Amino acid sequence: MRHYTRIVVIAAALCWALLAHGQRNKPAAKFQVVETTIDDIHSAMRAGRLTARELVQAYFERIVAFDKQGPALNCIINLNPKALEDADRLDAAFKRSGLTGPLHGIPVLVKDEIDTAGMPTTLGTLVFKDYRPVRDAFAIDRLKKAGAIILGKTTLSEYAAGDTYGSMFGASRNPYDLERTVGGSSGGSGCALSANFSTVAIGEETLASIRRPGGWNGVAALRPTPGLVSRSGMWDGYPSPTAQMGPMARTVKDLAQLLDAMVGYDPEDPVTALGIGKAPANYTRLLDKNALKGARIGVLRESIGLFSEPASEDFKKVDAVFQKNIEELKAAGAVVVDPIVIPNLKALLAKRATHPTMADESLRSYLARNPSSTLKTREDIAKSPDLSKSIPPSKADQWRNPLTKTDMAAWGTHLDARQELTIAIAKVMADNRLDAIVHKTVEHQPTYIKDGINPPYVNNKGIPALNTFLVYAASMTIPSGFTSDNLPVGITFFGPAYSEPTLLKLAYAYEQAAHHRMPPKTTPALP
């Protein structure tokens, strides 16, 4: 914790020094970053009302004001000390020839399991507190080439598993209720984005780690089909097929613009070879506010959330919002098939398993990108004196005692179930001529932080088990309203592999019809 505090203090001091340096060029009318979009920013830049430096300054001011004081959301692990230097370079280029790319000057926050050269990748754990990658992740490099500015790194659950709490930083707080969790494991990205600490953000998902924080923090978030976005330079990447990197934004259009910059083939992640020819030339241009008119939407009502309690009042509060969402889809012109039934769904979902050696292969592949690191294998992590300080003994034992050959049988069952489920979903969509399936992003409201770090150790409650852990598919969440407790809820649009163009169009049309996104009151505009 001392190391983390030192990092933040140094970064904040550097940022404030640079802020003071930039005050001389401050415009008469301050650009308001709260709920601003990529298009808003670029329009202001073209009009001479905003520079990249001023934009970065504005976000740094909000982070300093709200992340460690005030509501103390605690969703930023580290800030990029070169962010303003990068902004100055882009401002100079803009004066010469205009916008340098589709994300020119756009500040991005990145989940701290994805490598950004010159900054630590801590995974939220003391074990990786000194881990400094020498190269950007492939997708981060693409973002930079599109003109984006890496603003900093966001909190995550330790080793990206579960709710957002870690030995490097403690617990992150939900901006809509400071006693509740932000979800996980991309909770820092969801929280920071909702609090307007950046324009867009990057997350990662294995089970529901992008969509759950999206739903619980009131933002849009996409888990792409495997093969669309490279995972090289990301913890738990290739050859594991389960974890995916994905865009997060406050609007569907911003999310599409971010995705446009991220997709592409990467030889270091061979799974991306499957994505060649599957992405359109431009996702953003496909967005259509009338896309729901005549679209056939299947409603999955069966509870698929882990540890869900359908009889509870908490579950019913989310369900009440979902029922309103179905009526909103109808009002927007959708043909709703309600309900749809996926045969044997829960039994198939219960057959999830982990490959006994693939996780280790992914780990070695990730660490091999940084030859100077002392961490190279699972054994190196298991031997770290910080391991027992960072996670409970039961989880530490998982590092010390890897899976055995007996687990291969479970993996075989998992593969059979994945194939059966993929076919079952395809048949349901074909029989009902569906364009997409919708379900609750999470079946419960955000849980309380105290219940996650103390008994009863609530974790992952209500998260949907229907995802690409079992099926190669696309899914995204967007804000769909608030419960009677004033907590945000999301609706998930789900479709077959590489159906992102359809899902984005439908989600955009729903967003434009319903307008459910509302910023949290805990992080208002600064004067």
Q: What would you report as the Rg, rounded to the nearest angstrom?
A: 22 Å
Number of separate helices: 17
CATH class: Alpha Beta
Number of domains: 1
Low-confidence stretches: 1-7, 17-24
**Strand content range:** 5-15%
Instruction: Measure the end-to-end span.
Output: 32 Å
Give a quick account of the main beta sheet: strands, pairing sense, barrel closure.
11 strands, mixed
The shape, in one word, is: globular
Q: Could you report the average pLDDT, rounded to the nearest whole number?
A: 92
What strand line-up does the widest sheet have?
A: 1-3-2-6-8-7-12-13-11-9-10
State the CATH superfamily name. Answer: Amidase signature (AS) domain
Series of secondary-structure elements, N-terminal to C-terminal: HHHEHEHEEEHEHEEHEHEHHHHHHEHEEH
CATH arch. level architecture: Alpha-Beta Complex
What structural class do the secondary elements suggest?
Answer: alpha/beta
Helix content: 25-40%
CATH topology (fold) name: Amidase signature (AS) enzymes
Number of strands: 13
